[in-house]
């Protein structure tokens, strides 16, 4: 990334140890409901990485995801 800045934006599928909570909350409408998302950020190997956090992406089981990316039930 010479001469410019690179950024990725992706769902927060895990509790990445380098990512910090930006304290930014945004309300968006999804399927007729208002959902609140927050953003986490880290800077690694010359890339700004922004993670969108919402319970749909991260199921918290004893502080870890438990390998369940989309929640406790599949196929819904």
Automatic annotation (TrEMBL):
Recorded metabolic or biological pathway in which this protein acts: Glycan biosynthesis; starch biosynthesis
Domain Starch synthase catalytic: from-to ranges: 2-64
InterPro entries reported for this sequence: Starch_synth_cat_dom (IPR013534)
An example Gene Ontology molecular-function term: glycosyltransferase activity
Record keywords, A-Z: Glycosyltransferase, Starch biosynthesis, Transferase
Record GO biological process: starch biosynthetic process
Name this protein carries in UniProt: Granule bound starch synthase
Gene: gbssI-2
């Amino acid at each position: 990334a010479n001469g410019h800045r690179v950024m990725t934006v992706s769902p927060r599928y895990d509790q990445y140890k380098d990512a910090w909570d930006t304290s930014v909350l945004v309300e968006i409408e999804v399927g007729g409901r208002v959902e609140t998302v927050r953003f986490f950020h880290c800077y690694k190997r010359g890339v700004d990485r922004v993670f969108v956090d919402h319970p749909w992406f991260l199921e918290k089981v004893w502080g870890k995801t438990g390998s369940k990316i989309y929640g406790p039930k599949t196929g819904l």
